[in-house]
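Folded chain entry
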Amino acid sequence: MFFRQLLAKDATLSYFFGCGSCHVGVAVDPVLGDEQRFIDEAAKQDVKITHVIDTHVHADHFSGGRSLAELAGAAYCLHESNKSRVKYPFEALKDGQRIDVGNVVIDVLHTPGHTPDSICLLVTDKRRAPAGENATPWFVLTGDTLFVGSAGRPDLAGREAEMAGQIHDTLHQRLLTLPAEVELYPGHTSGSVCGAGMSGKPMSTIGFEKRWNPMLAMSRDEFVATLTQSIPPRPAEMDRMVGFNLGN
């Protein structure tokens, strides 16, 4: 298995990983303008990009997902809840769906809260641990749901308290039930407007966040109050970015 974390502009983190022996790879959350970085890395790893996945319709940057998928001849993927929103075809992902990429297995987790369509990607390397009912995942890509030291902003759908409650439930019912040793790779690092108080460290583990992330030790009511009171300013071009990413 190969794995690359790419730091893009505005503290955005993108990912490229897959199975080198089977010559296939997956790109996650690429930023517009970074497509050639993925194409070059695919050539270096001697792999074909089979899937390009956005963890949600982004509001803080212009996504390069569709253009990279077109360049690479790959499937462009979003959560199925976007079927009535976006103006272009995409491969709809469902909660619990499994994507096989050679010896790498990706399990899709629907994790609403930051946005209604947010997903996280749980990744298992079958050469390191078995997949299936007794699978031991290696890492999870958490998008804008859970950051190192923080949680995603809840206001992008315009229902701050409701969405903050959804984030709390998602965290405790989906992500924090994963084994403590599972590595955590978020969609942003410090300096991003997608959450307040996030660390500059670009990765963590589920166990470390359980112990030290202050948001995860709060009651649901305290979590909702804290998250809704610490919302960063809206991105300057948010409406234009969302419109572009929806295909308007």
